Amino acid sequence: MKRIAAALAVLVLAAITVSACSSSTGAAAKPQLAVTGAYVPQPPLQDMAAGYFTITNTGGASDKLVGVSSDAATDVSMHITTASEQMQQVSSWTIPAGGKLVLGTGGNHLMLMGLERKLTAGQTVTFVLHFASSPTITVSAPVEPADYQPMAMNMPMG
Ligand SMILES: [Cu+2]
Question: How far away, in angstroms, is 77 Cα from ligand 1 center?
């Protein structure tokens, strides 16, 4: 009788340990996203514009940017720039755990088509970012002069 009770106690302890362990792992394995440096260069044409930002993921799991909408354009698509300087549309971008997704001149960018208004420096464009697992993030991006360069790009590397 005593031996059975002891065995039960061990089983119960084991069950508690397993559930505590799996729940803490679950909490750690979530993406944690932050968007910085969003801007839209004042477009040279009236029918399309580009959008840039950086998404940093400090969480323990990767996430994917799967879609973007905006108050300034009827259509926002995600484009990469290929080695031959061609633009190509993609359906998602991965933001790795502990990593970042960088959009910038000459590389990954948002393409705004069907502009709702003329975009000039000083205005603000709103982007709504949709992710595979994280909640939606709304970003306010200032319209900057056409020749604007983000600070980070002017800093010496290393
Ligand atoms: Cu493009």
Answer: 8
Residue-number span of the structural domain to which 125 is assigned: 33-147
Per-residue pLDDT of 1-24, as tens digits, reads 566 666 656 555 555 555 444 444
CA 110 to ligand 1 centroid distance, Å: 7
**How far does the centroid of ligand 1 lie from the alpha carbon of residue 88, in Å?**
7
pTM: 0.78
Q: Which residues of 57-84 are buried (b: 16+ CB within 10 A; e: fewer)?
A: bebebbbbbebbebebbeebbbbeeeee
CA distance 80 to 58: 24
Same domain, 23 and 41: no
| Spacing, Cα 107 to ligand 1 middle (Å) | 9
Question: How many angstroms separate the alpha carbon of residue 7 from the centre of ligand 1?
Answer: 65
pLDDT tens for residues 77-135? Answer: 999 999 898 999 999 999 999 999 999 999 999 999 999 999 999 999 999 999 999 99
- Total structural domains in the chain? 2
